Amino acid sequence: MSDAWTGFLSALMFALATLAPIINPPGAAPIFLSLTSGASEATRSKLAGRIARNSCLLLLTAMALGSYVLMFFGLSLATIRIAGGLLVIATAWHLLQAEHGTELKLVIAPEPSLEPLASRSFYPMTFPVTVGPGSIAVAITLGAGVRLDLTTLPIGALGAVVGIMVVSGSIYFCFRFASRLLRVIGGQGTVVLLRLSAFILLAIGVQILCDGVVERFAAPASR
After folding, report:
1. How is residue 109 annotated by DSSP?
2. What confidence tens digit (pLDDT) does each residue in 76-129 have?
3. How far apart are CA 29 and CA 75, in angstroms?
4. Would you list the domain boundaries of the chain?
Protein backbone atom coordinates (compact mmCIF):
# COMPACT_ATOMS: atom_id res chain seq x y z
CA MET A 1 0.00 0.00 0.00
CA SER A 2 2.84 2.38 0.75
CA ASP A 3 4.34 1.81 -2.71
CA ALA A 4 0.97 2.50 -4.32
CA TRP A 5 0.54 5.68 -2.27
CA THR A 6 4.06 6.79 -3.20
CA GLY A 7 3.33 6.15 -6.88
CA PHE A 8 0.11 8.14 -6.66
CA LEU A 9 1.77 11.12 -4.97
CA SER A 10 4.71 11.00 -7.38
CA ALA A 11 2.43 11.13 -10.42
CA LEU A 12 0.27 13.82 -8.83
CA MET A 13 3.19 16.08 -7.93
CA PHE A 14 4.83 15.57 -11.32
CA ALA A 15 1.63 16.57 -13.10
CA LEU A 16 1.25 19.68 -10.95
CA ALA A 17 4.90 20.67 -11.21
CA THR A 18 4.93 20.42 -15.00
CA LEU A 19 1.47 21.68 -15.97
CA ALA A 20 0.85 24.50 -13.47
CA PRO A 21 3.84 26.69 -14.47
CA ILE A 22 3.13 26.26 -18.19
CA ILE A 23 -0.61 26.95 -18.00
CA ASN A 24 -0.13 29.63 -15.31
CA PRO A 25 -3.82 30.35 -14.58
CA PRO A 26 -3.14 33.64 -12.71
CA GLY A 27 -1.12 34.91 -15.67
CA ALA A 28 -3.83 33.90 -18.15
CA ALA A 29 -6.58 35.62 -16.14
CA PRO A 30 -5.94 39.11 -17.64
CA ILE A 31 -6.18 37.62 -21.14
CA PHE A 32 -9.52 36.08 -20.14
CA LEU A 33 -10.66 39.53 -18.99
CA SER A 34 -9.70 41.04 -22.33
CA LEU A 35 -11.47 38.35 -24.36
CA THR A 36 -14.66 38.80 -22.28
CA SER A 37 -14.60 42.59 -22.02
CA GLY A 38 -18.00 43.98 -21.07
CA ALA A 39 -19.42 40.62 -19.99
CA SER A 40 -21.33 40.30 -16.73
CA GLU A 41 -20.10 38.37 -13.70
CA ALA A 42 -22.63 35.61 -14.39
CA THR A 43 -21.45 35.27 -18.00
CA ARG A 44 -17.80 35.18 -16.96
CA SER A 45 -18.58 32.59 -14.30
CA LYS A 46 -20.23 30.29 -16.86
CA LEU A 47 -17.39 30.81 -19.33
CA ALA A 48 -14.82 30.08 -16.62
CA GLY A 49 -16.57 26.79 -15.94
CA ARG A 50 -16.64 25.88 -19.63
CA ILE A 51 -12.97 26.76 -20.12
CA ALA A 52 -11.95 24.76 -17.05
CA ARG A 53 -14.00 21.79 -18.25
CA ASN A 54 -12.60 22.06 -21.80
CA SER A 55 -9.07 22.33 -20.44
CA CYS A 56 -9.52 19.25 -18.29
CA LEU A 57 -10.96 17.18 -21.15
CA LEU A 58 -8.30 18.39 -23.58
CA LEU A 59 -5.45 17.51 -21.23
CA LEU A 60 -6.96 14.13 -20.32
CA THR A 61 -7.47 13.30 -24.00
CA ALA A 62 -3.90 14.32 -24.81
CA MET A 63 -2.60 12.18 -21.96
CA ALA A 64 -4.62 9.12 -22.96
CA LEU A 65 -4.57 9.30 -26.76
CA GLY A 66 -2.08 11.98 -27.77
CA SER A 67 0.86 9.74 -28.60
CA TYR A 68 -1.38 7.38 -30.61
CA VAL A 69 -2.87 10.27 -32.60
CA LEU A 70 0.58 11.62 -33.41
CA MET A 71 1.73 8.20 -34.59
CA PHE A 72 -1.42 7.70 -36.67
CA PHE A 73 -0.95 10.96 -38.58
CA GLY A 74 2.84 10.71 -38.64
CA LEU A 75 3.23 13.95 -36.68
CA SER A 76 5.94 14.87 -34.22
CA LEU A 77 5.82 17.00 -31.10
CA ALA A 78 7.99 19.52 -32.93
CA THR A 79 5.32 19.94 -35.60
CA ILE A 80 2.66 20.42 -32.93
CA ARG A 81 4.83 23.06 -31.26
CA ILE A 82 5.29 24.95 -34.53
CA ALA A 83 1.56 24.97 -35.31
CA GLY A 84 0.64 25.82 -31.72
CA GLY A 85 3.22 28.58 -31.55
CA LEU A 86 1.73 30.19 -34.64
CA LEU A 87 -1.74 30.04 -33.07
CA VAL A 88 -0.49 31.64 -29.85
CA ILE A 89 1.29 34.37 -31.82
CA ALA A 90 -1.85 35.11 -33.84
CA THR A 91 -4.01 35.31 -30.70
CA ALA A 92 -1.55 37.55 -28.86
CA TRP A 93 -1.13 39.82 -31.87
CA HIS A 94 -4.91 40.19 -32.16
CA LEU A 95 -5.09 41.19 -28.49
CA LEU A 96 -2.31 43.74 -28.87
CA GLN A 97 -3.92 45.27 -31.96
CA ALA A 98 -7.37 45.34 -30.38
CA GLU A 99 -6.11 47.13 -27.28
CA HIS A 100 -4.51 49.96 -29.22
CA GLY A 101 -7.07 52.71 -29.64
CA THR A 102 -9.71 50.84 -27.64
CA GLU A 103 -8.29 51.23 -24.15
CA LEU A 104 -11.69 52.03 -22.64
CA LYS A 105 -13.33 48.96 -24.08
CA LEU A 106 -13.31 47.24 -20.71
CA VAL A 107 -15.47 49.99 -19.28
CA ILE A 108 -17.74 51.22 -22.06
CA ALA A 109 -18.30 48.16 -24.26
CA PRO A 110 -21.90 46.89 -24.29
CA GLU A 111 -22.40 43.65 -22.42
CA PRO A 112 -22.20 40.69 -24.79
CA SER A 113 -24.52 37.75 -24.37
CA LEU A 114 -23.29 34.29 -23.47
CA GLU A 115 -23.95 32.76 -26.90
CA PRO A 116 -21.32 34.69 -28.93
CA LEU A 117 -18.74 34.24 -26.19
CA ALA A 118 -19.59 30.56 -25.74
CA SER A 119 -18.62 29.93 -29.37
CA ARG A 120 -15.14 31.13 -28.44
CA SER A 121 -14.90 29.15 -25.21
CA PHE A 122 -12.78 26.46 -26.86
CA TYR A 123 -10.92 28.51 -29.47
CA PRO A 124 -9.20 30.72 -28.57
CA MET A 125 -10.08 30.84 -24.85
CA THR A 126 -9.25 27.23 -24.04
CA PHE A 127 -6.80 26.54 -26.86
CA PRO A 128 -4.30 28.11 -27.29
CA VAL A 129 -4.68 30.85 -24.65
CA THR A 130 -5.20 28.60 -21.60
CA VAL A 131 -3.95 25.19 -22.74
CA GLY A 132 -1.26 25.63 -25.36
CA PRO A 133 0.98 23.24 -27.28
CA GLY A 134 3.44 23.14 -24.39
CA SER A 135 0.74 21.92 -22.02
CA ILE A 136 -0.46 19.34 -24.54
CA ALA A 137 3.11 18.10 -25.04
CA VAL A 138 3.46 17.71 -21.26
CA ALA A 139 0.15 15.82 -21.10
CA ILE A 140 1.29 13.48 -23.86
CA THR A 141 4.53 12.94 -21.96
CA LEU A 142 2.57 12.16 -18.81
CA GLY A 143 0.57 9.54 -20.68
CA ALA A 144 3.68 8.00 -22.18
CA GLY A 145 5.39 7.90 -18.79
CA VAL A 146 2.42 6.23 -17.16
CA ARG A 147 2.37 3.51 -19.82
CA LEU A 148 6.08 2.77 -19.41
CA ASP A 149 5.61 1.06 -16.05
CA LEU A 150 2.68 -1.30 -16.36
CA THR A 151 2.88 -2.33 -12.70
CA THR A 152 1.95 1.19 -11.57
CA LEU A 153 -0.41 2.00 -14.45
CA PRO A 154 -3.64 2.37 -12.43
CA ILE A 155 -2.05 4.35 -9.58
CA GLY A 156 0.11 6.49 -11.84
CA ALA A 157 -2.78 7.24 -14.15
CA LEU A 158 -4.99 8.17 -11.20
CA GLY A 159 -2.36 10.53 -9.81
CA ALA A 160 -1.91 12.22 -13.19
CA VAL A 161 -5.68 12.55 -13.64
CA VAL A 162 -6.07 14.12 -10.19
CA GLY A 163 -3.22 16.52 -10.99
CA ILE A 164 -4.95 17.61 -14.20
CA MET A 165 -8.22 18.09 -12.31
CA VAL A 166 -6.48 20.26 -9.69
CA VAL A 167 -4.93 22.44 -12.39
CA SER A 168 -8.31 22.73 -14.12
CA GLY A 169 -9.87 23.77 -10.82
CA SER A 170 -7.27 26.52 -10.45
CA ILE A 171 -8.13 27.71 -13.96
CA TYR A 172 -11.77 28.07 -12.96
CA PHE A 173 -10.91 29.85 -9.72
CA CYS A 174 -8.54 32.36 -11.37
CA PHE A 175 -10.86 33.08 -14.29
CA ARG A 176 -14.00 33.19 -12.15
CA PHE A 177 -12.57 35.93 -9.95
CA ALA A 178 -10.46 37.68 -12.59
CA SER A 179 -12.75 40.72 -12.52
CA ARG A 180 -11.77 41.33 -8.90
CA LEU A 181 -8.44 42.40 -10.33
CA LEU A 182 -10.14 45.26 -12.16
CA ARG A 183 -11.54 46.67 -8.94
CA VAL A 184 -8.22 46.28 -7.14
CA ILE A 185 -5.86 47.93 -9.63
CA GLY A 186 -8.34 50.18 -11.45
CA GLY A 187 -9.03 50.76 -15.14
CA GLN A 188 -5.66 52.18 -16.15
CA GLY A 189 -3.78 49.51 -14.26
CA THR A 190 -5.89 46.83 -15.94
CA VAL A 191 -5.09 48.23 -19.40
CA VAL A 192 -1.38 48.15 -18.58
CA LEU A 193 -1.64 44.61 -17.22
CA LEU A 194 -3.58 43.43 -20.27
CA ARG A 195 -0.99 44.87 -22.63
CA LEU A 196 1.82 43.29 -20.65
CA SER A 197 0.03 39.92 -20.55
CA ALA A 198 -0.64 40.03 -24.30
CA PHE A 199 3.02 40.84 -24.96
CA ILE A 200 4.14 37.99 -22.70
CA LEU A 201 1.73 35.68 -24.54
CA LEU A 202 3.28 36.81 -27.82
CA ALA A 203 6.76 36.08 -26.45
CA ILE A 204 5.62 32.63 -25.29
CA GLY A 205 4.25 31.92 -28.76
CA VAL A 206 7.54 32.95 -30.37
CA GLN A 207 9.45 30.73 -27.92
CA ILE A 208 7.19 27.75 -28.64
CA LEU A 209 7.61 28.32 -32.39
CA CYS A 210 11.40 28.61 -32.11
CA ASP A 211 11.63 25.49 -29.97
CA GLY A 212 9.57 23.58 -32.51
CA VAL A 213 11.64 24.82 -35.44
CA VAL A 214 14.92 23.95 -33.71
CA GLU A 215 13.66 20.51 -32.70
CA ARG A 216 12.21 19.81 -36.13
CA PHE A 217 15.17 20.85 -38.25
CA ALA A 218 18.10 20.25 -35.90
CA ALA A 219 17.20 16.65 -35.05
CA PRO A 220 18.33 15.11 -38.40
CA ALA A 221 21.68 16.93 -38.23
CA SER A 222 22.42 15.53 -34.76
CA ARG A 223 22.08 11.93 -35.88
Report:
1. S
2. 777 877 877 787 788 778 777 764 444 434 443 445 566 777 888 898 899 988
3. 31
4. 2-218
